[in-house]
């Protein structure tokens, strides 16, 4: 049951985590060369990871 509640919290946070993920990828882009495909993949992966972290934080804190 804990996993389901965490995923529900995370799904609600997906929309709000897009902007921070884009900013993190833009910061990475200033440090290294990132092509368009990698930029998109990094943005999606970071959005999901940030959402899961916030979802776990909401559940456990």
Biggest pleated-sheet summary: none
Number of strands: 0
- Rg, alpha carbons: 13 Å
By helix and strand content, what is the structural category? mainly alpha
Number of domains: 1
Low-confidence stretches: none
Which word captures the global form? elongated
Count of DSSP-assigned helices: 3
Order of helices and strands: HHH
What is the average per-residue confidence, as pLDDT, rounded to a whole number?
91
Compact description:
This protein is mainly α. Helices cover 84% and strands 0% of the residues. It has helices at 2-13, 18-31, 36-60.
SSE blueprint and pairings:
Layout: H1 2-13, H2 18-31, H3 36-60
Helix pairs in contact: 1-3, 2-3
Could you please describe the fold and organization of this structure?
This protein is mainly alpha-helical. It has one domain. It contains three helices and no strands. Helix 1 packs across helix 3 and helix 2 crosses helix 3. It is elongated and about 40 Å long. It starts with a helix and ends with a helix. The model has no long low-confidence stretch (mean pLDDT 91).
Question: What descriptive keywords fit this protein?
Answer:
61 residues, 3 helices, 84% helix, elongated
């Amino acid at each position: 049951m804990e996993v389901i509640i965490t995923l529900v919290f995370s799904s609600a946070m997906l929309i709000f985590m897009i902007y921070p993920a884009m900013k993190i990828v833009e910061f990475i882009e200033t440090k290294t060369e990132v092509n368009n495909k990698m930029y998109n993949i990094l943005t999606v992966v970071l959005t999901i990871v940030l959402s899961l972290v916030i979802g776990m934080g909401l559940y456990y804190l």
